[in-house]
Automatic annotation (TrEMBL):
GO terms for molecular function: FAD binding; hydrolase activity; quinone binding; sulfide:quinone oxidoreductase activity. It comes from the Bacteria. One of its GO terms (biological process) is sulfide oxidation, using sulfide:quinone oxidoreductase. Pfam families: BLH_phosphatase (PF04273), Pyr_redox_2 (PF07992). Keywords: FAD, Flavoprotein, Oxidoreductase, Quinone, Transit peptide. This is TIGR01244 family phosphatase. Its cofactor is FAD. Gene3D superfamilies: FAD/NAD(P)-binding domain (3.50.50.60), Protein tyrosine phosphatase superfamily (3.90.190.10). It comes from Exilibacterium tricleocarpae. Residues 73-131 form the Rhodanese domain.
Length: 555
């Protein structure tokens, strides 16, 4: 927590953690306002977790979620009403603190504070509220102070940083900026191994500052809106940023709220998920401690990132129980909203062999819709062949939940999105179908490929090449073939290495005598555990395109 004191009655920070609430209480804070909607980040605790910690610390808690960059006068009025009635001092938080600071500034302006006073108070707390002051004064930023870049990248996840590095690997003269409010960057493929006790959490995280190329300007903020007609994006503090070409790579939203009761019980009562950094260790704790009972594993409707991850958690957990000779005492269930175990049939026989080995019960067309952690009960909506639906209740001792997933809110509300909310691109060139100077990659696009880090590794050089081709720097348009990879960890020490492209076409990276991806392999495990993390950190994010050189049309 980076708490910034604005005055004696108000402080602000980025995302709070439940454990930090007691620190605020010890410092004299009496009330907390949350301005961040749930589901904005993979490492974000849900609002309910903070609320529960506040109740334990006897602090008042108010939830006033505001979409990034969408701070309205109505939001400011609501904030003002809450702030006025709450016991002081009040602490407000969002992703970076900017929304909370903006709300406070607008609320103070409504009470007569001048723009100069707002600017001074915000600056002392480390926030630039000049755009808010311009809003109060009715001033509009002139062309002379516009910030403009040859290439602007939204998102500094795996896809965004890889695209920036691949651009610079081809042309060091191009001006590039990346927009992202995060402090840290996660190697999310490693969380499955954290949940199995193979990796320590620290092995999957680095500071974002250490990864963004030095030639790239980092705009540490969140994007609120897109204005492709004017080649502009607007930040959450209402500041416009202009571009010649735009690359959109903000990732995916984990929609925890879509499952009734889930936010309230995550991390407690045997409810866990490897899809959140701080919960992967809890998964391993549950697995180690379970000696008898029922363990459930869930998979929501597609699309989700790394479609094999829900069953990876099952296999590695079951393998531990198998090695501890506990399978006779543990009932394992896999509840999949889909109709098949895995979407590419070539890999199903090897996976089914492990399902049978671990005696796991498969339940297809079962979608988790509600959970009661204290009652240790989950409810699934089951659909039969005729489309009839019914609710099915299942008790559990532990449950690993894969949350439903969707495009981020600011993408769904933008002109870049298709009807389902994803960025609308040509699946081969990754260029936007409507706006010629916009490209997109990673989990946010609507191309029918697997949403994996391996897919982003292949997409980044394609996008970099095609952006520079449009600028006249390189020749030839590169094509993406839908490649994705899902290393299915079927036991500790063996992996079924699924590699495929559009239409389920197998696209192996190695000869069969090295790795036969349709069969469990120790070599593939070694690749996953020892080789892929360094390739991620030292190659993919550095613009070194090992096994990822883009293929150009006609080549």
């Amino acid at each position: 927590m980076n708490k910034q004191q604005v005055n004696k009655e108000f402080s602000v920070s980025g995302q709070l953690l439940p454990a930090e609430v007691a620190t605020l209480a010890a410092a004299g804070v009496k009330s907390i306002i949350c301005n961040r909607p749930d589901g904005e980040g993979a490492d974000q605790p849900n609002m309910v977790e903070i609320q529960q910690a506040a109740q334990q610390a006897q602090l008042e808690f108010v939830y006033l979620p505001v979409l990034s960059g969408k701070v309205t006068d109505e939001n400011a009025a609501e904030f003002q009403r809450a702030y006025t009635r709450l016991a002081k001092p009040v602490h407000a938080y969002c992703r970076s603190g900017t929304r909370s600071m903006t709300l406070w500034s607008l609320a103070q302006a409504r009470q007569g504070m001048t723009a100069a006073q707002i600017l001074a108070a915000a600056k002392a707390a480390g926030y630039d509220m000049s755009s808010v002051a311009r809003r109060i004064a009715g001033y509009r930023q002139g062309n002379g102070t516009q910030r403009h870049y040859d290439v602007l990248i939204v998102g500094a996840g795996a896809a965004g940083i890889a695209a920036a590095s691949s651009l610079l690997a081809r042309d060091r003269q191009v001006s590039v900026a990346v927009i992202d409010p995060a402090e840290v960057h996660y190697y999310q493929p490693g969380w499955t191994l954290v949940g199995a006790g193979v990796f320590e959490p620290g092995k999957t995280v680095k500071t974002l500052a250490s990864l963004i190329p030095t030639e790239v300007e980092w705009i540490k903020a969140a994007v609120a809106a897109f204005d492709p007609q004017n080649n502009c994006v607007t930040l959450e503090n209402c500041q416009p940023i202009y571009y010649g070409r735009l690359i959109v790579a903000p990732g995916i939203k984990l929609d925890w709220q879509a499952i009734e009761g889930l936010p309230e019980t995550l991390g407690h009562n045997g409810v866990t998920s490897n899809y959140r950094f701080d919960l992967a260790q809890y998964t391993w704790q549950l697995v180690k401690n379970l000696k008898a009972g029922r363990a459930l594993f869930t998979q929501p409707p597609m699309p989700i990132k790394c479609a094999g991850a829900p069953q990876k958690a099952l296999y590695l957990s079951a393998d531990h129980w198998y090695r501890q000779q506990l399978l006779d005492n543990i009932e394992i269930g896999f509840y999949n909203a889909g109709a098949v175990l895995f979407g590419v049939k070539d890999y199903v026989p090897a996976l089914m062999a492990y399902v049978e080995k671990y005696r796991a019960q498969l339940s297809f067309s079962h979608n988790l819709v509600k959970i009661d952690g204290e009652a240790k009960t989950a409810w699934f909506e089951r659909q039969d062949d005729r489309g009839n639906r019914e609710l099915v209740a299942r008790e559990f001792d532990m449950i690993h939940v894969c949350p439903p997933q969707c495009a981020p809110d600011f993408i769904k509300a933008s002109p870049l999105a298709d009807a389902a909310g994803w960025v609308d691109v040509d699946q081969t060139t990754l260029r936007h179908k409507q706006f010629d100077n916009i490209w997109s990659l990673g989990d946010v696009i609507n191309a029918p490929n697997a949403k994996t880090a391996a897919a982003a590794r292949m997409q980044a050089p394609v996008v970099a090449n095609n952006v520079l081709e449009d600028m006249g720097v390189v020749k030839g348009v590169a094509h993406y073939n839908g490649y994705g990879s899902c290393p299915l960890t079927v036991e500790r020490g063996k992996i079924v290495l699924a590699e495929f492209g559009y239409g389920g076409k197998l696209l192996p990276s190695f000869p069969r005598w090295v790795i036969d991806g349709t069969k469990p392999s120790r070599t593939a495990w070694w690749l996953k555990e020892a080789i892929l993390p360094p390739i991620y950190w030292r190659a993919m994010l550095k613009g070194r395109e090992w096994l990822a050189k883009p293929v150009k049309a006609g080549a």
